[in-house]
Amino acid sequence: MERLETIIIGAGLAGLSTALHLRSERRILERSAAPGGLATTLFEKGYGFDVTGHWLHMRDPDIKARIEPLVPMHEVERKSSIYAYDRFVAYPFQSNLKDVPYKERVECLMGAVEAHTRRVAGIPEPGAFGDFVLHHFGEGIAREFMFPYNTKLWGVAPNDISPAWCQRFVPVPDLRQIVEGCFTDVHHKAGYNASFSYPLKGGIGAFSTALAEAVGPIELSTEVARIHAGERWLETADGRRMAFRNMVSSMALPVLIDCIEDAPDEVRQAVTRLACTSVRYFNLGVGKKVLDGLHWVYLPDPKLDAYRIGSFSNAVPYMAPPGCTSLYVELANDREFEDEDALAGVLDVLSAIGPEVTRQDVEVFQAKTIEHAYVIYDHAYETARGTIMKYLESTGIMSIGRYGKWVYASMEDALMDGREAAARIDED
Ligand SMILES: Cc1cc2nc3c(=O)[nH]c(=O)nc-3n(C[C@H](O)[C@H](O)[C@H](O)COP(=O)(O)OP(=O)(O)OC[C@H]3O[C@@H](n4cnc5c(N)ncnc54)[C@H](O)[C@@H]3O)c2cc1C
After folding, report:
1. Which of 17, 38, 209, 253 gets mutated to test ligand 1 (max ligand atoms within 8 A of its CB)?
2. Which region holds residue 296: left if phi is over 0, alpha if psi is between -120 and 50, else beta?
3. Which of 173, 179, 386, 423 is most buried when burial is the number of CB atoms within 10 A of its CB?
4. Is residue 227 part of a domain?
5. What pLDDT, in 10s, does the model give residues 78-116?
6. What is the mean pLDDT of residues 237-243?
7. pLDDT tier at 259, thresholds 50, 70, 90
């Protein structure tokens, strides 16, 4: 049996970053034929598609300094909106009520005032997402945007999940900011994603490719199938065994535990309580300029099967032939639908925004699924994840990245996880 100091499972951003930061010997095993994981790009007929929107938000200066020299990028200012009431409402909804029709605006504002009054009276921070929304935004904003949009995104009722996922991702304006948003545009840039970085060519996949080149050889098309944590060996799907001292895994947590032969029953049991959404999405190449130059648009309307439409080429023109648009469409998790029906709804929205888009204008149509997309922070989440993580800690196996840690996290978080895992090994 081959003996290795460190094995890294997965050449997504978490695995690549581990290898980039690690000073000692390591081997990277990747199931797919190419590196990058979710941060990959495919091109068809001149249209470029990432795995839905993948925009980089860098907040850690050391990661930025380490990563940026590898691939030239430019900074793009977000142009996003919500499409509701047959018009655009600036994102985030709760900070931009000015764009909402009069009757609904008054109701949203009254709800926000009532919520403020309840908070001032000392009502404690609630433990369920739906109640969190009511607590911070009030009934109007909940009804007009937060509840319908999040039900489509998560596929469960708002109170079936906790607000733990949203601390960094959902802007929470205070009452003054909500009132200001009824009269001005001052909060148009609110939120963590007001601007983003993106490679100058090649889509987000160029970023992963550059990282992969920097870290050296990766064993592609190599799937890890079995692991023995106690005896410290793994077996690949083609039957090769390797012994390891350290293991850093970025495969999805339930799959990792499934592979570990000597995982205790209590841990296997905990895995059955983990939940995530599997997002269906479309890649569309449209032979026209559409979506009014916007980078992405939120669709809270429950009648529409899509919850978000985004355009790569509106943000980065090289992602489509001149005069055309590459789009991604993320589809609701709270219902069943036929792809062609969902597409018809999308074309109606695009046509309402203008110009008219027919089925004949769609030059590329791909329907895809992300198996593990959004980890669901339901009420079993914390205990179940805690049991699994405690066990992994006891084995010394590091499970990192968005799906390894089983969290709602960004590409930069995956890079930071890799840096941390490498530091732990190098310090050992
Ligand atoms: C719909 C959607 C939109 C997103 N948009 C953004 C965004 O705009 N900005 C942002 O910063 N982040 C975004 N993200 C998050 C981002 O994609 C992730 O945080 C990041 O790419 C995770 O990297 P990772 O390495 O942890 O996981 P992954 O990319 O999943 O990499 C894991 C790797 O492990 C490999 N693997 C799995 N099992 C095995 C096995 N048995 N053997 C060998 N290899 C295996 C996989 O093939 C994969 O390459 C988005 C995510 C989703 C789902």
Report:
1. 38
2. beta
3. 173
4. yes
5. 999 999 999 999 999 999 999 999 999 999 999 999 999
6. 98
7. very high
Going by alpha carbons, the residue nearest to atom 37 of ligand 1 is 251
Structural domain span for residue 321: 279-370
Helix (H, G, I), strand (E, B) or coil at 151: helix
**Cα 228–chain centre separation:** 31
- Work out the percent of the chain whose per-residue pLDDT is above 70: 99
Domain-located, residue 379:
no
What does the pLDDT average to over 55-60? 92
Given pLDDT bands bounded at 50, 70 and 90, which one contains residue 1?
confident
Report DSSP letters for 30-65, one per residue: -SSSSS-TTS-EEEETTEEEESS---B----HHHHH
242 and 325 part of one domain: no
Q: Where are the alpha helices (DSSP H) in 155-204?
A: 175-180
Q: What is the 51 CA–ligand 1 centroid distance (Å)?
A: 10
CA of residue 253 to ligand 1 center, whole Å: 12
Instruction: Say what the pLDDT of residue 68 is.
Output: 85
Q: What CATH number should be reported for the domain holding residue 327?
A: 3.90.660.50
Pocket of ligand 1 (CB under 6 A): 9-15, 29-32, 37-39, 52-57, 223-224, 250-251, 255, 279, 370, 373, 401-403, 409-414
- In angstroms, how far is CA 74 from the centroid of its own chain? 21
